[in-house]
């Protein structure tokens, strides 16, 4: 024992014996917060999740993660109004991540490389009827098929896609892209019966021995309004015009086309008219640009293409070669009021783009359904008041976009699956949102958004070529890496590095980190310096 | 003019980055890092010095193939890491007196030379008290003789372990136990200042650098470069002290960042007396942003802010920015 150097009486010990964790009054804990993009996505995509894989260049894994929630990324990458980008925290640093363009890149990549969906592990033996092969129906069919149910879609028309084909012009969504993504769903085992209009849903379910049904017939009856018109005045509705673009005979609109309405459909028709050779395409809208429901970038693109917009005007009368409009003024509440001032505009045709109604005749024989404002009422689980019949998309109360429809399809599928098992589907509670105040933006490299190439104006006025181009591999990777990964650890090692007490254990790639509470003093540096807000302090229980 | 844009999300701002190749990652991101200063040390919550010491010594260990001996002046770093008989150090480490650590390191280097152990390298480390005041004579001697030692100063701007007394590194207007915020000029006086990095440069030694705990990659690169050289080398690391500065423990790195971004602490490196590179300010901030979160400057704010004093501090920052060229040239 006394074989020690001079003046030394104790063995050298390590400070590891000193558990400094006992000093702590608060402890850091890792958590996943909800990124604002995911929170804003009507289809419930885990955007941060799939971007994470894209960041390392693993596009297939990224695509597979994406299609968990949305089977149509190449379509959505073109037509979605991307509320995710509006919510993106990066917008407060430079500009939002181009989520939509990366989604499109992944969708196109999947088509190019021929990636397929994983078939279900086993079949449930249950049969589900989906009515309508639009976005909502396709989304539900895809999700149900992946859960092992046998799905048949009855489609009234000769082609799939619904409003994606008959409402969205080709210059925004090329048809080969749509066909390729629908085909992939068919290859998963979904049967689509075309030209099969369901006139009585209960009858169809009985004959086909279906255990449940999902209705997604959409809204495609153009709303009309009364306009005093001469005999030879040519008045059409927007839905018919856009639908006839899919057939052999293109609609005859003439050289001077007036479009009445202020939604995205009005812009689609006006831009289509320009491409059909109209010298003038004028949108008549009763309110002003701030109050226009159409999306701003579509208005911008239309104006660039030479579409004109007559703000604060209503059509009073239509003749065979002209119309009379009345100027409006907005009142205190923002509603248009007539001014008594009139103006004549030359017009060969008038296209009404005033919204759409739903054809609900297939439900006539179903007792006890609640119909309000022309749409079917559904409960929280997307089921109508008739057990086993679910509905979604444009035929239920909601915002009418493709993205919302896809979200409805997924939600309905999960509830149908639960209902078929005699259970009920409880969605996992949402995590708290990772707001900008939760981030430490210092750590992100400065980089503005890659803007998708936009076709030259002259070229796009006269053709139906796609207006917005895609990203290529290098700039898609760049764009993906602009993601801040809000609220979700992306393994930057900051917590592991900045701890003065080595109290963070790095578990290795893909495994994240854990705290060593024996030594963590609770200083909170890891929380302050976590770029993405994936750690928080909680009081110690004493 | 096709140029591939290389963009790695957080680049080298974060400690690690899974998108970078292995050889471009930091020492601290490594699962097998040395942890030269191990857990269980008795430094306060959020200690900048404990963090800076691990950053620097781990990098030095990495650069010397783990053949490293450290001499350590008296001060916080020594006190909190080695209460008898425990130690947090996982390297050969010797405690010198308060003022002679440069001389002790010189002795170790001389002994190694005699033994022909060119593979074993020597560092000396101390706080600002042990470096800029008490150990200054020994340090200057070590520089002048160009002894083969890397001296690292962890600057927290006062004598923290004895109860926050003023040192020659304490900034003007700061409150310490010996410069109370009373009288016509509250806090520390506006003296002439004493920049040991510039004094070290005046010795013409091979390498002098400054760094902060807010920029790990910069700090590691400087230690690595210093370790590749022989002769006297000096690195001055800015390490905020939550206790002595009256700052929140979670603000340690933030304060170091603000010191740099305001221009109050210029980050640069110099060889043989000439400045070779400076770290540019990324998002410039007024000095108030740095001063306000610290209670040692609280008397400058409140109901009657000391505008004149703040302006004098701002002038110091502006002078640094001009002198070292800390701002990016405006792109014309």
UniProtKB/TrEMBL annotation, chain B:
Pfam family, one: TPP_enzyme_C
Domain of life: Bacteria
Alphabetized InterPro entries for the sequence: PorB-like, THDP-binding, TPP_enzyme_TPP-bd
Entry keywords, A to Z: Oxidoreductase, Pyruvate
Gene Ontology molecular functions: oxidoreductase activity; thiamine pyrophosphate binding
Coiled coil: none
Listed GO biological process terms: small molecule metabolic process
Signal peptide (residue range): none
Start and end residues of each Thiamine pyrophosphate enzyme TPP-binding domain: 74-237
Name of the molecule in the record: Pyruvate ferredoxin oxidoreductase
Organism: Candidatus Methylophosphatis roskildensis
């Amino acid at each position: 024992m006394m074989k020690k150097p001079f003046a030394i009486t104790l063995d050298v010990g390590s400070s590891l014996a000193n558990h400094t964790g006992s000093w702590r009054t608060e402890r850091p804990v890792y958590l996943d917060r909800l990124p604002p993009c995911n929170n804003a996505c009507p289809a419930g995509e885990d955007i941060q999740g799939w971007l994470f894989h894209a960041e390392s260049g693993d596009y297939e894994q990224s695509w597979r993660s994406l299609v968990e929630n949305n089977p149509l990324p190449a379509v959505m990458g073109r037509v979605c109004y991307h509320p995710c980008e509006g919510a993106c925290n990066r917008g407060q640093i430079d500009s939002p991540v181009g989520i939509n363009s990366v989604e499109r890149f992944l969708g196109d990549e999947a088509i190019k490389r021929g990636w397929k969906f994983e078939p279900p592990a086993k079949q449930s033996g249950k049969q589900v009827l989906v009515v309508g092969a639009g976005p909502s129906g396709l989304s539900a069919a895809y999700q149900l098929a992946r859960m092992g149910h046998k799905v048949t879609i009855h489609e009234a028309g000769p082609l799939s896609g619904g409003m994606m084909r008959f409402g969205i012009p080709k210059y925004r969504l090329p048809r080969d892209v749509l066909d390729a993504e629908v085909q992939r769903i068919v290859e998963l085992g979904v049967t689509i019966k075309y030209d099969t209009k369901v006139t009585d849903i209960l009858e169809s379910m009985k004959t086909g021995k279906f255990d449940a049904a999902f209705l997604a017939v959409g809204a495609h009856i153009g709303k009309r309004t009364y306009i005093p018109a001469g005999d030879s005045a040519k008045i059409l509705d927007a839905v018919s015009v856009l639908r006839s673009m899919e057939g052999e005979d293109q609609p005859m609109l003439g050289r001077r086309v007036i479009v009445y309405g202020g939604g995205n459909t009005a812009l689609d028709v006006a831009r289509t008219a320009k491409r059909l050779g109209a010298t003038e395409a004028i949108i008549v809208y009763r309110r002003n640009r701030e109050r226009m429901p159409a999306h701003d970038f579509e208005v911008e693109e239309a104006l660039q293409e030479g579409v004109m917009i007559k703000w604060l005007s209503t059509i009073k009368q239509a003749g065979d070669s002209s119309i009379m409009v009345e100027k409006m003024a907005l009142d205190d509440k923002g509603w248009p009021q007539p001014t008594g001032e009139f103006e004549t505009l030359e017009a060969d045709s008038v296209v009404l783009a005033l919204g759409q109604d739903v054809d609900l005749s297939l439900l006539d024989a179903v007792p006890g359904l609640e119909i309000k404002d022309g749409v079917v009422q559904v409960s929280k689980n997307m089921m109508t008041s008739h057990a086993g019949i679910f509905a979604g998309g444009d035929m239920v109360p909601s915002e009418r976009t493709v993205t919302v429809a896809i979200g409805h399809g997924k939600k309905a599928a999960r509830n149908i699956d639960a209902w078929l098992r005699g259970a009920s589907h409880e969605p996992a509670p949402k995590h708290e949102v990772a707001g900008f105040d939760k981030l430490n933006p210092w750590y992100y490299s400065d980089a503005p958004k890659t803007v998708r190439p936009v076709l030259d104006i002259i070229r796009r006025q006269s053709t139906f070529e796609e207006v917005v181009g895609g990203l290529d591999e290098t700039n898609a990777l760049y764009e993906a890496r602009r993601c801040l990964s809000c609220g979700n650890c992306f393994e930057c090692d900051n917590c592991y590095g900045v701890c003065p007490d080595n109290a963070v254990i790095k578990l290795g790639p893909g495994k994240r980190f854990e705290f060593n509470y024996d030594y963590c003093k609770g200083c909170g540096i890891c929380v302050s310096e976590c770029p993405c807000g994936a750690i928080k302090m909680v009081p110690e229980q004493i | 003019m096709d140029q591939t844009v290389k963009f790695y999300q957080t680049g080298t701002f974060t400690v690690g980055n899974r998108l970078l190749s292995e050889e471009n990652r930091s020492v601290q991101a490594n699962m097998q890092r040395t942890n030269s200063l191990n857990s269980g040390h008795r430094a306060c919550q959020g200690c900048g010095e404990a963090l800076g010491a691990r950053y620097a010594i781990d990098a030095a260990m990495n650069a010397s193939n783990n053949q490293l001996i450290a001499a350590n002046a008296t001060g916080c770093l020594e006190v909190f890491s080695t209460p008898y008989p425990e130690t947090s150090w996982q390297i050969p480490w010797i405690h010198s007196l308060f003022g002679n650590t440069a001389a002790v390191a010189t002795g170790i280097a001389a002994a190694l030379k005699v033994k022909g152990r060119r593979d074993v390298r020597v560092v000396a480390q101390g706080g600002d008290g042990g470096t800029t005041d008490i150990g200054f004579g020994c340090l200057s001697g070590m520089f002048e003789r160009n002894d083969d030692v890397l001296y690292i100063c962890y600057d927290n701007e006062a004598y923290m372990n004895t109860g926050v007394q003023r040192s020659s590194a304490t900034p003007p207007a700061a409150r310490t136990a010996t410069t109370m915020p009373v009288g016509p000029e509250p806090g520390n006086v506006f003296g002439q200042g004493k920049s040991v990095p510039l004094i070290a440069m005046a010795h013409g030694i091979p390498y002098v650098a400054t760094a902060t705990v807010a920029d790990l990659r910069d700090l590691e690169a400087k230690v690595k470069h210093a370790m590749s050289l022989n002769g006297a080398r000096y690195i001055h690391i800015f390490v905020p002290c939550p206790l002595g500065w009256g700052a929140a423990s979670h603000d340690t790195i933030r304060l170091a960042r603000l010191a740099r971004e305001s221009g109050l602490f210029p980050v640069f490196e110099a060889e043989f007396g000439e400045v070779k590179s400076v770290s540019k300010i990324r998002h410039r901030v007024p000095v108030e942003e740095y001063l306000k979160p610290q209670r040692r400057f609280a008397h400058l704010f409140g109901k009657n802010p000391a505008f004149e004093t703040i302006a004098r501090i701002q002038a110091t920052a502006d002078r640094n920015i001009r002198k070292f060229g800390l701002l990016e040239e405006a792109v014309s």
